[in-house]
Every structure is written in C-alpha cells, then in structure tokens.
Amino acid sequence: MDFINSLNWRYAVNKFSSQQLSQAQLQPLIDSVHLSASSYGMQPYELLVISKDHIKQQLVPFSYGQDKIAQCSHLLVLANRVTTSKHDIDSYISALAENQQVDVEKLAGYKQTISGDLLSLSPFEQQKWSANQCYIALGKLLSCAAINHIDACPMTGFDQKAVSDALGLTERELNAEILCPVGIRSRDDHSALRAKYRKPINQLVSLL
Fold first, then answer.
1. What one-character-per-residue DSSP string does 24-67 give?
2. Of 177, 183, 136, whose CA–CA distance to 159 is shortest?
3. Which end of the chain is more exposed for a tag (fewer CB within 10 A), N or C?
4. DSSP 3-state assignment of 78?
5. How far apart are CA 178 and CA 155, in angstroms?
6. CA torsion 166→29→128→92, rounded to 10°?
7. What share of the chain in percent tops pLDDT 70?
C-alpha cells in the first residue's frame, strides 16, 4: 500500500478491538517520534508508551469518559517541556557536539542563536513552542501508523493537568499535550464505514 492510499485508509478510530500490538508493530511508531523533525533538533518533549490496563483505565475520567483510552492496545502520550532553560540548551549542545564529534566551541554560534531565540520567550511562549513540536511528531506517528496498518486516534480533548498529575509529569516539568491511543480497529466500529471527508483540494491549495 503506497503512502497516499495509506492516508486514505486511516481514520480516527472510535472503538478498538482487544488485539494487542506486538513489539515489532509498536517499535516503528516509537522510532517515527524519535526521528521526527523539531525546532533546532531539540525535541522538547517525551513519549510515554502505556500498556498497563490500570493506568489506561485511570485516565478515562480525565478524557470525558472516552473508553478508547482503556480499549486500545497502547496509549501514547506526547508530553512537552513546560520551560526551556539555559541548562537544557547547554546539555543539548554538549550532546550534539559529542554525537557529531566536534569541539563544543565549534557550536558556539548555534548555541547563541538558540539561546537568543528561546530564552527571550515568556514562559507561556516557551510552552507553546514546545507544544508545537509535539504536533510535528504526531504527524510522523500517524503517517507511520497508517503505512503499517495500525490504527490510531489523536486526542486533545482531555484534562491536561489531571493527566499530567496522574502520570507524574507535572513534578518533572512536563505537560501531557496529546494522547494517541493505538491498536487495531474493532470490526463493529461503525466510524470505519463513514466516507472520509476533506474539503475540495482547490479550496485548500493555492498555486502562486
């Protein structure tokens, strides 16, 4: 199945089957987030992969009773950093220098650019910046899932603070930005039978 056909195949699953994803099925989804593009390459987020039923069930009340969180094989949580500090930037530059086998001094200009941009932001703006990076990763995740015939349903309709507190994210200065249940669709999920609607392409795309 090619990429566009895969995108036509996917939909926002409303009901998952009880089938569990194998590690071989799950790993490409994790890798797609790991390899995602992000601003400055900093990846100011973490990915939580939740398979334990009691944890998934605990989060259902914080998502307005959406049972798909408990039904799914795995619940993926993209959690962004609430703030970005000088220490975060220093650590990133050090890791980057080691990875690229260059002296950290050679990255001084790049470090100055990042610091000038991110440390000048207000706390609200920093959190918005890091949250935006989660959505880039989500795009990669959904595309990877579709190509591999794994179902997913991205969710932002939930109590971020309650989920963050329940998962111990708040104390680590992280915020649960996106929930994404993944698994295999149920045979009686009637949502799968609905025709996919997207606005006409000529209303979406302008050629200049």
1. HHHHHHHHHHHT---GGG---EEEEEE--HHHHHHHGGGGTT-T
2. 177
3. C
4. strand
5. 6
6. 100
7. 100
CA distances from 111 to 11, 69, 83, 92, 94 (A): 41, 40, 17, 9, 10
Rounded to an integer, the average pLDDT of 149-168 is 98
Instruction: Say how many CA atoms lie within 13 Å of 81 toward its Cβ.
Output: 14
**Average pLDDT of the residues of the chain:** 97
Q: Give helix then strand counts, H and E, for the chain.
A: 9, 4
CATH classification code of 3-84+134-186: 3.40.109.10
Give the global pTM: 0.95
Alpha-carbon distances of 87 from 43, 92, 128, rounded to whole Å: 15, 8, 19
Helical packing angle, 23-34 and 123-147, nearest 10°: 140
Q: What does the pLDDT read at residue 1?
A: 57
Q: Among 78, 63, 98, which residue's Cα sits nearest to residue 32?
A: 78
Residues 6+ apart with CB under 8 A from 76: 29, 33, 47, 48, 49, 50, 141, 179, 180, 181, 182
* Location of each CATH 3.40.109.10 domain in the chain: 3-84+134-186
- Count the Cβ atoms, other than its own, within 10 Å of residue 60: 16
The 3-state DSSP class for residue 177 equals strand
